[in-house]
Every structure is written in structure tokens, then in C-alpha cells.
Write a structure and sequence with these properties.
Low-confidence stretches: 340-345, 373-393, 397-415
Oligomer: single chain
Shape: globular
CATH superfamily: Metallo-dependent phosphatases
CATH architecture: 4-Layer Sandwich
Helix content: 25-40%
Order of helices and strands: EHEHEHEEEEHHHEHHHEEEEEHHHHHE
Radius of gyration: 20 Å
Number of domains: 1
CATH topology: Purple Acid Phosphatase, chain A, domain 2
Structural class: alpha/beta
Mean pLDDT: 88
Length: about 425
């Protein structure tokens, strides 16, 4: 299976897809999947721009709306996570994951899916300590503070990922795991990004929760973006002899190292994106403690027997229904549509996405994304903090690296 990995998309789907189609033609190969490591910018219309935290000069529609509207179709199945420059109102509709457009799948704020027999996990957002232990309190329309905090990683989502026991083949995060620079050529990195050196020395470059997940999951591949540069590392885990190939990629701009092709051993195709049984069981088991306020959210561990019961329940349900995600549904008018005037003045609050509703009904869970206070089951289970116990090419030097031709390079965006 050939997988293309892209750094920060910034809404430039047309250029990334065109580059990959050109590569297929020139090298007479077939790309099975595209993975994007955040800042995807799934902007559907002008109203979505209000939830996109970027300076005014970067607030443009770009090209995602064409795929949302059906004007264009993604030439490759695409999986993405959220970064810190997103249409956060739309991603909140799909908190548990789902189709952002036909053949373009959002992994959710945290999630795992299968593509063929390959398991792909991801964590959206970036880490900020001041919000990490809080609940998901932000609701659209966002104020000036919430538009920044909404994409900050929460412990609840990380805790769910820490429950994974079965092997994950590929994991993606927007920001880097803290300490990952110890495993690569960091001196070469600071030659091009000298302002990183102090953060590397003080162990503040990257995400602490991502580092915990890296140590727990030990995936063969881990991909990130965010810092707008390419950096490779090889992590040799202390127990079990497992190795993780880490690669961070740049943003989609001319003469930037924003794209990489890898080949992963897999069963023969055709391949499609499917729900992951273990992840659905984790989602079902932990939804009762979903923290939804700006208070510190503490939760106790779930006894293994309860998880086993939940897993059997999900397996039975999936045997009846199948593992295919629920179908894509448009929830707002598209940019340049006949209803574009509505898109400018309406839809300022939360919209219930039929995909999310269908998934929750399948799992027999209540819809909580438009709620602001925890229910009794949440309040009763909060017990205390969780103890987890817890050279440029590097290992990818023999893999294709794709760049666009030279053009304008305006790289300044807000960091968080």
C-alpha cells in the first residue's frame, strides 16, 4: 500500500492533489491514501471563516469548499486531523470523526480507523498546559478566547487513546511529541530554525501528551506538521525492541518539503476507510465522562472487565451493521451556491451533523455536543487525576519527496 503524507494543508487541496496525480503519471504508480497532519482548513463558506483563527490576510476560502459542494471529487481517499488553524465550528460537528466531504475523512478530536488492515490513529489540536485538564467548554459562535482554546488538546481525548491495546500502524499529531528531537539531527534543525534551540534545550518544543502516546502506542510510523519544516527521527523504544519512524513535514508551499510517499505492507486492495472496533468500544465506554465545562476534569480508570463487555457489545453491533462509516451529509450551504447569502448571515451556532447523530444512535449514546453542563453520570465518576505510569531524511531518505515549483512564500501565521 502506498500512502502519501502531507504536512499542513492550509486549505490548498487542489495543489496537493494535482501534485500527487502528476507523481502517479510520471512514476507509473498508484497512491492508495493521503494523510494530512493538520491545519487542513475545511472551510465550507464565508461563515466558517469566523471560526478560523488566522490573521485577516489569511482568511480566504481556498479550495476545500469545491470538494464539500461536489464540484470536485477527491482523487484519493483522504484522512486528516485538526491543527491550530481550522474551521473549528465544522470540526466540532464531527467531534467523533466523520466525512468532512466525500472521500475526505476527519479522524475526530481523537480517533482510530482502519484502511484495509492498516490501523491509523490521530490526535487533533496542539498542546497548551493551561487548557489540558479542562473540559471541552467552547461552543460556536466562539469569542476571542474560545477561538484559540477550542483546538487545544484535552486530557480526556488523550486518556481515551491511552486505552488502546491493539497495535496501531500509523499515528498522526499536529504538533511534535516533546523530546522527539533527541532522536534525530536536531543540530541540523536549528541551523535552519535557530529559534528552536532554546525550546529544545528546555524541553518545551512539542507536546507532552503526544510523547506519552508515543511511548504507550509505539507505532511503526508517526507523522506531524505544525512547525513548517521537515524533520526525521528514529525512536528505538526501550522495551520490546520496537522502532518508530517519525517524520514532520512542512506546509504546502513552493520549494517546501511538504509531501512524502511511504510504502506500507498490507493485504491486497481494494481498500476503504472503516470504523475500528476497539476505538468504538473505547468511545462508548468513556462517553459518560465526557467533560463539557471549563472546570478541571478528573476521571478514574475503567476496570478491564467493563471494557471487555463493551468490546463484545460493539463487535455484535458491527457484525449486524458492518464497519462502513455513516454517509456524508452537507449541513450548510456551500460557498458560491445559490444560497450563499444564507451562509453569510446564518448558522452561527452549533449544528447537529447527521453523521454524528447516526454514530451515537448506533452506539446507543446521548448527543452531548450542544450541552454545556455535565450530567449526573459525569459528576459522580470524577475521582482524581489519572496515572498513566507512564539528518533531514533520516529513516525516510530513500522515499520520494515532492515539492511545488517556485512561487510566493508568505509563511507568517499565528502560533496558537
Amino acid at each position: 500500500m502506498k500512502i502519501a503524507v502531507e504536512g499542513c494543508m492550509h486549505g490548498d487541496l487542489d495543489n496537493v492533489y494535482a501534485t500527487l496525480l502528476h507523481l502517479q503519471q510520471v512514476e507509473k504508480t498508484k497512491i492508495d491514501l493521503l494523510i494530512c497532519c493538520g491545519d487542513f482548513q475545511a472551510v465550507r463558506n464565508e461563515k466558517d471563516l469566523e471560526s478560523l483563527n488566522v490573521p485577516a490576510k489569511f482568511k480566504s476560502m481556498n479550495t476545500f469548499w469545491k470538494y464539500y459542494s461536489g464540484e470536485k471529487v477527491a482523487p484519493f481517499p483522504t484522512i486528516f486531523i485538526g491543527g491550530n488553524h481550522e474551521a473549528s465550528n465544522y470540526l466540532w460537528e464531527l467531534y467523533y470523526g466523520g466525512w468532512a466531504a466525500p472521500d475526505i475523512y476527519f479522524l475526530g478530536f481523537a480517533g482510530v480507523v482502519k484502511f484495509g488492515n492498516i490501523r491509523i490513529g490521530g490526535l487533533s489540536g496542539i498542546y497548551k498546559d493551561r487548557h489540558y485538564h479542562l473540559g471541552h467548554f467552547e461552543r460556536p459562535p466562539y469569542n476571542n478566547n474560545e477561538i484559540r482554546s477550542v483546538y487545544h488538546v484535552r486530557e480526556y481525548d488523550v486518556h481515551k487513546l491511552m486505552q488502546i491495546e491493539e497495535p496501531v500502524d500509523i499515528f498522526i499529531s499536529h504538533d511534535w511529541p516533546v523530546g522527539i528531537t533527541d532522536h534525530g539531527n536536531w543540530r541540523n534543525l536549528v541551523r535552519s530554525k535557530p529559534f528552536f534551540e532554546q525550546e529544545i534545550q528546555s524541553r518545551t518544543l512539542g507536546s507532552k501528551p503526544a510523547a506519552e502516546l508515543l511511548e504507550k502506542l509505539k507505532p511503526p510510523y508517526w507523522f506531524s506538521a505544525h512547525l513548517h519544516c521537515k524533520f526525521a527521527a528514529l525512536v528505538e523504544h526501550e522495551d520490546g525492541g520496537q522502532v518508530t519512524k517519525f517524520l514532520a513535514l512542512d506546509k504546502c508551499l513552493p520549494k517546501r518539503k511538504f509531501l512524502q510517499i511511504i510504502e506500507v505492507e498490507s493485504e491486497p486492495g481494494p481498500y476503504e476507510i472503516q470504523y475500528d472496533e476497539e476505538w468504538l468500544a473505547i468511545t462508548r465506554r468513556f462517553n459518560s465522562v465526557f467533560p463539557l465545562t471549563a472546570k478541571k476534569a478528573y476521571f478514574r480508570g475503567i476496570p478491564p472487565l467493563e471494557m471487555e463487555d463493551c468490546r463484545r457489545w460493539v463487535k455484535s453491533k458491527m457484525q449486524s451493521r458492518g464497519s462502513k462509516p455513516f454517509e456524508f451529509v452537507r449541513t450548510v450551504p456551500c460557498y458560491k451556491s445559490s444560497q450563499s447569502h444564507d451562509a453569510k448571515g446564518s448558522f452561527s451556532g452549533h449544528i447537529r451533523n447527521p453523521q454524528t447523530e447516526a454514530l451515537l444512535q448506533f452506539l446507543e449514546l446521548p448527543y452531548l455536543l450542544d450541552k454545556g453542563e455535565p450530567g449526573p453520570s459525569q459528576a459522580s465518576i470524577f475521582r482524581g487525576p489519572v496515572d498513566y505510569n507512564s539528518e533531514d531524511g533520516g529513516p525516510f531518505e530513500d522515499v520520494n519527496n515532492i515539492q511545488l515549483p517556485e512561487d510566493d512564500d508568505d509563511d507568517e501565521q499565528v502560533p496558537d
